[in-house]
């Protein structure tokens, strides 16, 4: 009890100093709990939607893919209408109804503006059925009654200002459907962002599926008291051919839909938790510094405790109890902040189109429990070394000296360990650059990153002596005596400076590494495009939508074109001459594709591969299956028949564009795949007549104005789009890393604040002999700047080493250009100086207000 009282007294006595450390714990715990609450809420939202929208039993074609799979030909797999009659006669069926649903659509308004989501959520066209009343209700108007009427969901109507009577055009592979809004249906559960339009059944069948006697699925409702499992068995018995159909109960359908979303949610969840872990790691340095300095400032107090009978364990325990109190306070606040962060993220997602309702806010008991355990554990872990150091202070040494004597032997051991770890990490990074396979190199890269990071942290105090002196020559010496004082203060305790700089180093190392990788990817892709792509224009959908025939026809009617090239992707099972079989994709393209994409051949002639019943293969595939030019391949097209094709060319896979692609002529594909099952173009290429590039570009854009889902890009557009996409991804990562950098800044603030308290008498003496308040504040600001620049220099150097090694692995995948983004690196370095200035504002202000006589009279 005495230990607890002492710890509580010390904790409250230094509550201002503890507050910054508590903020570090709070931020880290908030990020973890916010991530868990946000992703759990998303799971709850999708679970409710999938459960509410699924029928008691759903019957669909056996060949139908997952809910988010788009069919190659743009038309969903279908069931004959006769299946509905057989299902209705099954035992336990209250009613059954045929459903039509397609994700291969785009909905536009009268101004050709896309009504779909911008967050990647699907646009769905369907027929309105009784099963939809499970998750929706008609809020206004009425359901569609004919081919000129359509009903839209309320979220889409609100987002785009749609009203009853407005005209919408639905673009499908079978043609456009123009209709006026007859009704607006509202979801009774949260809709995460899908845009949904409904037609009457006959229109949906004819316009979405191209036939009047088919459905994509049948929704079956059970009679009262009939379990879903029993109903599924009865329906299966009535159908009599289980191999032709996929039957799912409500729970099974919901689980299947959830699985299709699960990988995306898991990636997002674990990525965000990874950044929270980085913030925790940075927070450890802050807490270590805080407790180390508090222990050093209480050395005489600890000596008195030892002198009156306190044991080492009691002293040790007293410091650890303070850490527990800090961890509990920071974690409790962090859990609350995490819930607020999750709500904020939900509002942010709502602003960009993904609707998540706070009614579905999900806080599992494990979330606050995990936050509390993590916060306390990390705080106690960080305080353990300072606590042990406090317990080792002998009573007489503590009473003689107000400071903790340095242990030169432990410093040498630490330096030796740090050098070994750093050299080992450097060797692993060097091995990464010499790896022949990406899988092998990635292991060396991971080892190198971990070892060099730990090595730089351990060796930080040794590096501080050299790096701070070097920085001082450039940054501090110009400020005269004040600059020299700042340099000496930064070097006074290299261990403290090293730990403070290491906190900033971690975040900036990741920033530099990702900047190098991102810039190298853009530079490599740009070089590859310049070398390989001969087409003037590329047309494709940003969301992966296939190019509908009417859009392809519009392209071909554009003036000024030398040629238009089709590019279709067909799934097939390939059997090599040796009998080995693999599932692969085959590209069906026009012969002009040879000019649009310059592929290097290692054997044969690519022109011959576009001949009848001929094909090309990539050299990796050829090597793996011992294929040579002239061999015959058996190609079983998923959507058609089996063909015997002669290998006429083997293309090099030392490329990043169409790597591993196998080519056939579109005529060969049409020979073996029925027209109604032929895949639509995934993308298309166009080349303008010489001297007419500018006019052709404008004409092509004009021809596709009615189809806003497709982008027309020349090579400059394509490169800029690639750069923007990577830039957006990096900005998201930088935003997540900002948390770690904020915690690092708090570490600098805390170090300076405690350092000012530690040097109270010294500051008083300097003020007494003539140091002005302005000079004192400048001294503290300069000390902060040089510490921040020290951490930035280590972090940026380390990150560039990681990024350079990572680029060598990317080179094995065709991204062979290394580009160091010097403007970004220099900007971050300069920004670090401003971070140092910002961190010193409060400590410098407090030091300047210090009463000179009281400071001189301070005892220790």
Automatic annotation (TrEMBL):
The keyword Cell membrane belongs to this UniProt entry's keyword annotation: yes
Major localisation: membrane
Entry's transmembrane regions: 270-296, 319-343, 363-385, 413-431, 443-476, 497-517, 732-757, 782-802, 822-845
Annotated ABC3 transporter permease C-terminal domain residues: 275-395, 736-851
Domain of life: Bacteria
Molecular functions per Gene Ontology: transmembrane transporter activity
Residue ranges of every copy of the MacB-like periplasmic core domain listed in the record: 19-237, 500-698
Localization terms from the record: Cell membrane
InterPro entries hit by this protein: ABC3_permease_C (IPR003838), MacB_PCD (IPR025857), Macrolide_Exporter_MacB (IPR050250)
Keyword terms, alphabetized: Cell membrane, Membrane, Transmembrane, Transmembrane helix
Membrane topology reported for the UniProt record: Multi-pass membrane protein
A GO CC annotation given for this chain: plasma membrane
Pfam family, one: MacB_PCD
Entry similarity comment: Belongs to the ABC-4 integral membrane protein family.
Official protein name in the record: Membrane protein
